Automatic annotation (TrEMBL):
The keyword Repeat applies. PROSITE patterns: NACHT. InterPro entries: GPIID_WHD, NACHT_NTPase, NPHP3-like_N, P-loop_NTPase. This is NACHT domain-containing protein. Keywords: Repeat. Pfam families: NPHP3_N, WHD_GPIID. Residues 104-276 form the NACHT domain. It comes from Corynascus novoguineensis. The keyword Repeat applies. PANTHER family: AMELOGENIN (PTHR10039), NACHT DOMAIN-CONTAINING PROTEIN (PTHR10039:SF14).
Length: 451
């Protein structure tokens, strides 16, 4: 948020005695010691001043704006298709969470590539559309980026979105006045921010609030702390409800089982609904491919059938295959399609085999190894600094983009930023292709990149 935006933010002034006592010189809101009336401008100016300071301190909290993360995620995945998530709105477990006062925590769990993130993006949009709730806070964990892969970052992001209710920012201001910058940068940051967060949720003026955290399994630092806070706060606040998502991790299930207010929605147990949603997604993508590449009706239908049969309810598999088909002419598309095996790991293995066969195999291996060990997504400009790139390609955006394209569908490039297409792609490289991309060992690659 820019300085200009902070200064222009219009805080709302509460009515009645929402301020509570104003400390100093025996003055209470609206009264002085002799019973006269304090100039109303004093109250207003005091309130505006607190709001302005609270808004400005949000800059110190900032590591990422979850609203921008949501937009980027949707754009990277080709847009949010309503037919791919609306099934959840009629799901029994979701409706129980939404309508039952005692059901305050919904855990959506599923295997990699099942569409959990886009499902939550759709839920966020639906809650916004009906103004339910008054305050909506959300965060997307991503293991490949230090600004989104730890518990403290989650709290930073959630509190950052409290700018929707400026009156609640007084808790940020109060803590900052007591501790200064260490509130935002220091070994006790989690403790300080969790206290601010709890104070916000316990504010008696807090409107109905929904908190959504995606991909708990990608919170690689402080997950236990975050889960403990979620369980604690979802158990005691009637006005606050939570949705969290993750892979099927027993450690997460064990922690969340500590609350009796939990509702679990398993994507595997809702296989029919998920498969129907994947089919709708495939139909949408194939229609686009047919228009783009001039498929005749038989080719179009054959491609849709193959994708539908082999996706096994996995959005990511269908998306990766459609991405590979984007530059394939209609006359060869069907034959080319049949080289893609079902299953994510099998698909990743095929991609690695194709890389090994290419004349750029060593360059691609070094790029994948570098992107796998860095702590955040890197830019096109940073890549040549971290490893040797062909001289005429370095500094040439078009050439660099072509080089990233040689990495199959493991990597994606958006606005000059290189990142993994999905956490499961990085997992595959680190576990099943480790010896291939780190021939001299992961530790040696890490040392080479950071030395």
């Amino acid at each position: 948020m820019s300085e200009r935006e902070l200064d222009a933010a219009p805080p709302s002034i509460p009515t009645g005695n929402a301020f509570g006592p104003i400390q100093g010189d025996n003055v209470i809101a609206g009264q002085n010691i002799s019973g006269g009336t304090v100039n109303n401008n004093f109250v207003k100016n005091n309130f505006y001043g607190e709001q302005e300071r609270g808004l400005k301190h949000l800059k110190n909290l900032y590591t990422t704006d979850p609203r921008h993360d949501k937009t980027r995620i949707e754009q990277t995945k080709g847009g949010l298709l309503a037919d791919s998530y609306r099934w959840v709105l009629d799901n029994t477990d979701f409706r129980r969470w939404r309508n039952n006062e005692e059901s305050r925590l919904l855990w959506i769990k599923g295997d990699p590539g099942k569409g959990k993130t886009m499902l939550l993006c759709g839920i966020i949009d639906e809650l916004k559309a009906v103004s339910d709730p008054a305050l909506l806070l959300f965060f997307f964990c991503q293991a490949t980026d230090v600004s989104t892969n730890n518990a403290t970052a989650v709290l930073r992001g959630l509190i950052y979105l409290v700018d929707q209710q400026p009156s609640l920012l007084s808790y940020v201001q109060k803590k900052y006045d007591a501790t200064g910058n260490p509130l935002f940068r220091g070994v006790n940051t989690w403790v300080a921010l969790s206290e601010v967060f709890i104070d916000i949720l316990e504010d008696p003026t807090l409107p109905p609030t929904r908190l959504i955290i995606d991909a708990l399994d990608e919170c690689i630092e402080g997950l236990d702390l975050l889960l403990g806070l979620i369980v604690q706060m979802s158990s005691i606040h009637l006005n606050v409800k939570w949705i969290v998502s993750s892979r099927n991790w027993p450690i997460i299930e064990k922690k969340l089982n500590a609350t009796t207010q939990k509702v679990m929605l398993s994507l595997e147990l809702n296989e029919e609904s998920v498969s129907t949603a994947v089919t709708a997604y495939i139909r949408f993508k194939v229609d686009w491919l047919a228009a783009q590449n001039g498929y005749d009706i038989d080719t179009r239908d054959a491609i849709e059938r193959y994708l539908s049969v082999n996706a096994y309810g996995t959005f990511l598999w269908a998306a990766l295959v459609c991405h590979e088909l984007a530059d394939i002419s209609g006359w060869e598309a069907e034959e080319f399609l049949r080289t893609f095996p079902p299953g994510l790991d099998a698909l990743y293995r095929r991609m690695m085999d194709q890389i090994h066969k290419s004349r750029h195999a060593k360059l691609v291996q070094r790029i994948l190894a570098t992107v796998a060990v860095v702590y955040r997504p890197i830019s096109l400009e940073e890549l040549p600094i971290l490893l040797d790139i062909p001289y005429r390609a370095s500094g040439n955006d078009q050439a660099m983009a072509e080089i990233i394209g040689l990495c199959g569908s493991f990597l994606t490039l958006r606005e000059h930023t290189i990142s993994f297409i999905h956490q499961s792609a990085k997992d595959f490289l680190l576990k099943q292709a480790r010896n291939e991309i780190f021939p001299s060992g992961l530790e040696n690659t890490h040392h080479t990149v950071f030395s």
